[in-house]
Design goal:
The complex is a heterodimer of chains A (about 1150) and B (about 475). By secondary structure, chain A is mainly beta. Chain A contains 15 helices and 56 strands. The longest helix of chain B is centred in the first third of the chain and has 26 residues. In chain B, β5 and β6 form a beta hairpin. Classes of the chains: A mainly beta (about 1150), B mainly alpha (about 475).
Chain lengths: ~1150, ~475
């Protein structure tokens, strides 16, 4: 039945196919569906084919592959022909067909995009002359739709070879009167392939389904509240598609964005599966208040299928786990934690749009101030039901392991350090200066490689994903399910992150095309089993650490009187932590096209992200001297309700098309969390419940945020050349106090496709596309917690009552007057396409200035709190250049090679800061300089005469071993020593496919000045002085006068000159190094089985592949991972190599 | 299908009205309740006495849980000054910041010092806010106001007393106006003492004779008097110190606990002011830091030989207030002592409260004041009260100098690791350079004051560093 509908809708004259149909029916269905499947690939207007002794089936398959034209034939007919020889070189389809069928008993006709092969009628007798009567005139009606049935308004319908024609209305409909039967109509619409339609009698309504053009300029780009194409877009939008995501064996989709889009910074906190990944677009716009080591980090707004993701990109865990204590020492201070995006299956994602400039984001107003990331999940495709199964398994190993001192080296270093002070290591703690249990009490012959023990294991990932999709033009569906298990590269087999996801999408369009309904639902369950807390630092345990476990696996706490508490690595492993995260995302879009050009629609979205956590400290994890069993329970709920009614109006005015959009947003975010800890359990078995606790502490918190806005967008495209767009918005936020709740924001954008100008075309014909565009606009920021404009007191539930009264404490300092921060964004872009758009170049210049800065203003602690919320009159600028190149280097039937390259340069500058000198930012920031500058001492080096580390004093000339930590402006020695901003970053990818093989090679690179390993050496394991291991690099330390070394003289004496000089090192320019790296981020190789094999297996597609992530790194950064600078003990990023297969039925 | 049914004509108007309606009701859409579920406004907090008492309770107990340093029952004051002075050796070898106290080479980046600076101020904010909130409230009775404000003034005085004895002069903050308080410079020590004395004398007059509640948690007049005697002692105003201590002792409310094991328990008859231990396990931080974590191992904090040798033979305090751990090191059994005044690492059969003032110290204050005033007989009596309770023979010191030396010695063994007593004694008596200079190789006179944290100097340009810390 579907089959018939299908043909009818394509305008076939029923009589034409009757006979064939009778014969082929089922076969044809299979072939056609196969044809439709491949029709998404790249097509050529010509055919190039050279084969000898091949079957016609093979020839037609090849032609079909190259041209995208479908073929209709019976095997019976073709089998009678036998093998043929063909030699076609760039000939048009018709010529190719003529030559293939020359002297054969077959003929062909091309109906729309289908080549119909049939038998020649036997020439038995000369045909009687037929009177050629003129064909009848017809009144016809038709409707033009896209592949999923959405009407295409404004498509032009012309009679082939003439200028006569019409345009479709808002419902995509057209009518024509008195057109002769057999006339060919050409339907064209920007962004779609031209489609031809031969008129036949007896068809009430032609349905013309148009295929999207393969020109990359016309590919759909998801933008705010709709779609656009690269051709007509004036905003700055980068897109990462499913094909790029699925080649990367990552469990968190955010990791797949690394290096893929210019201006997008992706920072992994550590390599623990599920751990946080921080994302930033075009730099930090908010001044880093750096209060108590915590700095705000601007992150974009994340929207999944039109629904703002309720936890955004924030930590969802409250209790400690392996993921939470791995402190990231970079510019982004964070407590780590688990990432909510870990609960979205990358395999369910169709595309990710990164919206960067005012034109693209200002319609999101406040929310989009730091850019927007739109994640769109996969939707069903019309056609026969398609079942896809993908499965892979991967192996993880730690990237860039350290080379630590071995036992001999470590013990010798310690001995040398004592000797350097003239001390003799002893075993008596009363003589603390000489106390060295590692040299005098521990076994001198025992050796453990702690790094290997903790990180050296390889672990495995498993990933299975299945999907079923199908439907017809009006109704499509997709349902998919996935399971992912990633293990920790860490001792203890039960520690893993597991994810189960179910995704579905339903589309319904009414027969008359007026109503469309899209419903999407995602449910994810993520389960993270982790040890109590990390212990990455334990890789620095001395190699001769005594046994920490007895033969039965129990913890040991005493070695010959030395307390092993500080050494006990395995205690963490006996403290299980479980986090279960549930994510439900539901989106409903209802649109009704109720008048020509006018659509009323509503987006309704709901997201709920819930985490429950349990962690236990059983007796087995504790020293038997004192046992206090403990269990903690925590819940964390994020919820967003989002309602967005909209009116869309589209009308052709003159030579142009005007689209207008007006809408409103209502959003309510709630976050509730609670935590209960129980103590004093009588037995480990009771730890699963709070009921057995002798005493209980409680904590809960809630946050409520409401946001509403009205917005409008006006866009006019004139003559396919000139584009202007305006957006305006009025935002209201509950985060502000009375009188400060509303703000108005607007943007304007314009574009000029100059390549469409005739003089230009004539002068520079090799430039196939050229567009200049720009935008300027404002947006606000309300990114703060609610209620802080008043002074509140909070009861404290986690301490016991005082005299029967539960204590209450002040919650905050308050400032009733703060309001929107204001960001002004300018973006200028040039797009160029060369050689029929085979080479596309995009260059962007942007300049963002955020004034009236909103954030925590740091205060000295004598005020009682370390900061107060407020607006700061300072203005911070981020400006930069972004370039991206897409190139189709080779495109033949067998070999295609495309290259993508992007690079971005962001420069940060504090433009103004009135009263900087009297503020608490004094000496921290300098007007005219980036906020990423670091103050410290200018390091000179190790003095070869005495082994002391030397620094320049504030005057820049004289040298000292003990610099004054005041700023040079105040008489001390601290001066700006480094600028930590990223100098440039980007990615470089190549996609090569040869016949059935496909290879993807993607490099990511970044360059900045970053803290180096020496900082960690001196901050956490002062070599020789503490009983902690160090990288082998410390062997290059000073021994004798005249030595030129990296590290200073060894010492164990905290009062020695050497110690004091070295303790200043971490705060000096010596602690900063160039951190430039090029990383082979992704390598993916796949092989698709040939069609004829597949046919035998009744499959459409079978692909086997190997994907690798973080395979190779080229860097000048010494010791540790260049992405995880500053702390080489953090759990390293993972190198993953996954093997898998994917097939479609 | 006929969707027309659901969308009658003039839909545009309906649509536009809908949009218009939405935008005009914007204000209502973003309305949220006046206060979050977890909090009340300042006005609500002081609207009646029961609610106001939760703020008072916060002042007394929140800081004891703050997890910072220098708080009512966080052990930092005892640990850090114990290491800086001659009481404790730190045997853990993996903590450079802790080592700085023992080595007397603190710098302005030391995290523990930052905590000792920050947490009193974090604790003072609620105290000032509660004093001001109660004073401004119209829903509270005059007697309630008088009593609670007096109690909180004692708390405020306590914070500042230890602040100035650790850091020297500090910014004196008594309001919650951050615009003003964030720009305060350090007040001279004398100025802060004047404020402390003013708070304490106010409190002494306003507080009732009896404890206002069960236990000895909320201060009564004797608490103010005991505190005053200590302040006067530090100010070397001997007569005033004597008088204040005398008031407390002669009140007859307190006796020296005959059994040393009962001194730090809840209900101790020696206690003048105690606070419940409210840490995560409702035990004191002292017990958690000082009691060895593993049996049979060298404790993390051990007595210096100086402290150990200060105990005369038969001194019960070495048996009952210190824990002896025998460890065989290199074939030789060695005994290590660690503080054991507070014994509960986890809640036990007995409840330990945090001791702020106790009769033993007040006897020693009166003894010292009396000795300075030439009243040697009374001084000796008071001293011997403490000695006899500890099981050591009565002192026979007769001259003022001998008596003062005996009292200092007694303070060392009686008050070790309590509120930094030893460190403060060495400083107030001007003997610190002589004593520690002989004991500690890294000693320098400037080490007697801890540095002002570097971050605070940067945040408030008016703060000036202590000498010797460049």
């Amino acid at each position: 039945m579907h089959f018939k509908d299908f043909y009818k809708s394509r305008g076939f004259h029923s009589g034409l196919l009757t006979k064939t149909l009778r014969v082929v029916k089922l076969t044809a269905i299979i072939i056609l569906v196969a044809c439709l499947q491949v029709s998404a690939k790249g097509y050529s207007q010509t055919v190039t084919l050279s084969r000898t002794h091949v079957s016609l089936v093979t020839v037609f398959e090849e032609i079909q592959k190259q041209t995208g034209y479908n073929f209709l034939y019976t095997y019976e007919d073709l089998d009678r022909i036998g093998p043929v020889d063909v030699d076609l070189q760039k000939v048009p389809l018709t010529e190719a067909m003529d030559r293939c069928l020359h002297n054969k008993a077959l003929t062909y006709s091309i109906v729309e995009r289908t080549v119909v092969i049939k038998r020649k009628e036997p020439v038995s007798a000369p045909e009687p002359p037929v009177e050629i009567a003129p064909l009848p005139l017809l009144d016809i009606r038709g409707r033009v739709v896209d592949s999923i049935g959405n009407p295409l308004a404004g498509a032009s319908v012309t009679i082939k070879g003439t200028n006569k024609g019409t345009k479709t209305n808002a419902r995509g409909e057209f009518d024509m009167k008195d057109v002769r039967m057999g006339t060919v109509l050409v339907i064209s619409y920007t962004g779609f392939n031209n489609t031809e339609l031969r008129l036949a009698a007896g068809i009430e309504m032609y349905i013309v389904s148009m295929q999207r053009s393969q020109d990359i300029l016309d590919a759909t780009v998801i933008q705010a509240y709709g779609t656009t194409s690269r051709r007509f877009n004036v905003g700055s939008i980068s897109t990462v598609d499913a094909a790029t995501i699925e080649k990367q064996p990552v469990t968190n989709v955010l990791l797949a964005l690394s290096g893929q889009a210019p201006g997008l910074a992706v920072n992994s906190i550590n390599g623990v599966p599920g751990s946080r990944v921080l994302i930033q677009i075009r730099g930090q716009n908010t001044i880093l208040s750096n209060v108590n080591g915590f700095s705000p980090y601007d992150q974009p707004l994340f929207i999944v299928d039109g629904v703002p993701f309720s936890p955004q990109n924030n930590n969802i865990s409250q209790l400690g786990g392996l993921y939470s204590v791995q402190v990231y020492g970079g510019g982004i201070n964070s407590n780590g934690g688990l990432n909510p995006f870990n609960n979205i299956n990358p395999a369910d994602i169709e595309t990710i749009s990164i919206l960067k400039d005012a034109d693209a984001t200002s319609i999101y107003g406040t929310q989009g101030s730091n850019g927007v990331i739109l994640i769109t999940t996969k939707k069903g495709k019309a056609g026969k039901a398609n079942f896809n199964l993908t499965a892979n398994t991967g192996v993880n190993t730690a990237t860039r392991q350290l080379k630590l001192l071995n036992r001999e080296q470590f013990l010798q270093l310690r001995k040398d350090a004592f000797a350097a002070d003239g001390r003799t290591p002893g075993n008596d703690p009363n003589n603390y200066d000489n106390y060295a249990p590692d040299l005098t009490i521990f076994d001198q012959n025992k050796s453990t490689d702690w790094q290997k023990l903790i990180y050296g294991k390889s672990s495995s990932n498993t990933d299975i994903h299945a999907s079923l999709s199908g439907g017809n033009g009006n109704n499509t569906f997709l349902i998919s399910g996935g399971y992912t298990r990633s293990n920790y590269n860490y001792p203890g087999s039960s520690f893993a992150d597991q994810r189960f996801t179910i995704h579905s999408a339903i589309h319904h369009g009414s027969q008359d095309g007026k109503l469309s309904i899209d419903f999407g639902s995602d449910y994810g369950y993520d389960q993270n089993n982790s040890p109590g807390f990390g212990g990455g630092q334990k890789i620095l345990l001395p190699p001769n650490t005594p046994d920490l476990l007895d033969s039965a696996g129990n913890l040991l706490w005493n070695y010959k009187g030395v307390d092993l508490t500080g050494y006990q690595f395995y205690a963490y492993q006996k403290m299980p932590t479980l986090l279960q995260n549930y994510n439900l995302n539901q989106s409903l879009r209802i649109a009704y096209h109720f008048l020509p050009g006018l659509t009323l629609s509503a987006n309704l979205g709901y997201n709920r992200n819930t985490s429950t956590e349990k962690s236990q400290v059983p007796a087995a994890a504790q020293s038997p001297a004192y046992v206090q069993r403990q269990a903690s329970f925590a819940n964390n709920n994020f919820q967003t309700i989002n309602i967005e009614p909209q009116i869309d109006y589209s009308i052709a005015i003159g030579k142009g098309q005007l689209t207008a959009l007006a809408g409103a947003t209502y959003k309510k975010n709630t976050n509730n969390s609670n935590q209960t800890s129980g103590y004093g359990y009588a037995n480990d078995l009771f730890l699963g419940s709070i009921n057995g606790a002798a005493s209980v502490n409680n904590f809960d918190a809630s946050d409520l945020y409401k946001y509403s806005a009205g917005f409008a967008r006006l866009k006019y495209i004139y003559d396919q050349k000139y584009i202007i767009s305006f957006t305006g918005r009025r935002d209201g936020s509950s985060n502000f106090g009375p009188g400060h709740q509303f703000g108005n924001f607007a943007s304007a954008g314009a574009g000029w496709i100059f390549s469409e100008e005739k003089p230009f075309k004539a002068a520079l014909p090799f430039i196939s596309y050229g567009k200049l565009s720009g935008s300027y606009g404002t947006s606000g920021s309300d990114g703060i917690a609610s209620y802080k404009y008043q002074s509140f007191w909070t009861p404290v539930g986690y301490i016991p009552p005082f005299l029967g009264t539960q204590p209450a404490v002040p919650d905050n300092l308050y400032n009733p007057n703060y309001s929107w921060a204001l960001k002004k964004s300018l973006n200028l872009a040039l797009d160029l396409g060369f050689f029929h758009d085979r080479l596309l170049l995009n260059a962007n210049y942007y300049r963002n200035r955020e004034g009236n800065q909103l954030g925590g203003y740091p205060l000295p602690i004598q005020a009682g709190f370390s900061s107060v919320l407020g607006n700061l009159p300072a203005t911070l600028q981020n400006s930069g250049w972004e370039f991206s190149i897409t190139s189709n280097n080779i495109k033949t039937s067998d070999l295609t090679w495309t290259t993508n390259f992007n690079i971005s340069f962001n420069r940060n500058k504090l433009l103004s800061f009135p009263n900087l000198e009297s503020s608490s930012y004094k000496s921290r920031y300098v007007v005219g300089k980036p906020i990423s500058i670091v103050y410290g001492y200018l390091y000179k080096g190790v003095n070869p005469d005495n082994g002391l580390m030397e620094y320049y004093k504030g005057d820049g000339k004289t040298v000292t071993t003990n610099p004054d930590y005041r700023y040079a402006t105040e008489g001390g020695d601290q001066v700006p020593i480094a600028n930590r901003e990223v100098k440039y970053m980007g990615g470089f990818g190549n996609n090569i496919s040869y016949r059935h093989f496909s290879l993807y090679v993607f490099f990511q690179f970044s360059s900045q000045t970053a803290p180096n390993y020496m900082v960690t050496v001196y901050n956490s394991s002062f070599p020789g002085q503490s009983i902690k291991n160090s990288p082998v690099e410390v062997l290059d330390h000073w021994r004798h006068p005249g030595d030129h070394t990296t590290f200073g003289k060894l010492t164990t004496d905290p009062n020695s000159e050497a110690y004091i000089s070295e303790s200043n090192f971490g705060n000096s320019s010596g602690g900063y190094s160039d951190d430039t790296y090029l990383r082979l981020k992704t390598l993916s190789l796949s092989y698709s089985l040939p069609q004829n094999w597949l046919k035998k297996m009744h499959m459409q597609d079978l692909r086997i592949y190997a994907n690798a992530q973080n395979l190779l790194t080229f860097t000048n950064y010494k010791v540790g991972d260049p992405e995880q600078f500053n702390d080489y003990t953090a759990l390293p990023l993972q190198r993953t190599v996954a093997f898998g297969l994917s097939f479609n039925f | 299908m006929k969707y027309e049914v659901f969308f009658p004509h003039h839909k545009i108007m309906i649509g536009l009205l809908l949009m218009a309606g939405l935008s005009s009701s914007c204000k209502r859409l973003i309305e949220i309740p006046p206060n979050p579920a977890t909090a009340v406004t300042e006005a609500q907090q002081f609207s009646d006495s029961a609610t106001a008492m939760t703020a008072v309770a916060g002042c007394f107990s929140y800081q004891s849980n703050g997890g910072g340093s220098f708080t009512f029952n966080d052990g930092n004051l005892a640990r850090n000054t114990g290491m800086s002075s001659d009481e404790l050796i730190y045997t853990y070898t993996g903590d450079p910041a802790g080592l700085q106290f023992y080595a007397n080479n603190l710098n302005a980046f030391n995290g523990s010092v930052s905590g000792m600076w920050a947490s009193p101020y974090i604790g003072l904010y609620p105290v000032n806010a509660t004093i001001n909130g109660i004073a401004a409230s119209s829903g509270l009775s005059a007697s309630f106001k008088k009593a609670t404000i007096a109690e909180l003034k004692v708390v405020r005085a306590l914070y500042y007393f230890y602040m100035i004895n650790i850091f020297g002069g500090v910014p004196y903050v008594s309001s919650t106006d951050y615009q003003a308080t964030s720009r305060l410079a350090r007040s001279p020590v004398d100025t802060v003492y004047a404020r402390i004395l003013s708070d304490l004398t106010d409190a002494q007059q306003a507080l009732p004779e009896e404890y206002p509640s069960e236990g000895r948690f909320l201060p009564n007049r004797n608490v103010a008097s005991a505190f005053l005697s200590k302040v006067y002692l530090y100010r070397q105003e001997w007569q005033k110190a004597y008088d204040a201590a005398n008031t407390v002792i002669s009140s007859g409310e307190y006796i020296l606990e005959p059994d040393l094991n009962n001194v730090f328990l809840e209900g101790s008859q020696e206690a003048i002011w105690q606070l419940p231990a409210t840490g995560s396990y409702s035990v004191t931080s002292e017990a958690q830091s000082f009691v060895p974590q593993s049996s049979g191992t060298v404790p993390t904090y051990i007595f210096t030989s100086l402290l150990k040798d200060a105990f005369e033979s038969g001194d019960q305090r070495l048996d009952k207030w210190a824990m002896a751990t025998t460890v065989n090191i290199g074939g030789v059994d060695q005994v290590f002592y660690s503080p054991y005044k507070y014994k509960n690492v986890y809640p036990g059969a007995t409840v330990e409260d945090y001791m702020i003032f106790r009769l033993g110290e007040v006897y020693l204050i009166r003894a010292e004041a009396a000795a300075h005033l030439g009243n040697t007989g009374e001084a000796l009596d008071d001293l011997n009260q403490v000695r006899l309770r500890a099981g050591v023979s009565a002192s026979t010191a007769s001259t003022e100098d001998d008596l003062l030396a005996a009292i200092m010695h007694e303070r060392q063994t009686e008050l070790f690791t309590e509120w930094g007593s030893r460190w403060l004694d060495l400083k107030r008596t001007g003997t610190i350079d002589a004593v520690l200079g002989a004991e500690k190789p890294g000693w320098d006179a400037h080490d007697a004051l801890y540095p002002i944290p570097n971050a605070q100097l940067n945040l408030n340009g008016l703060l000036k560093q202590n000498p010797g810390y460049q």
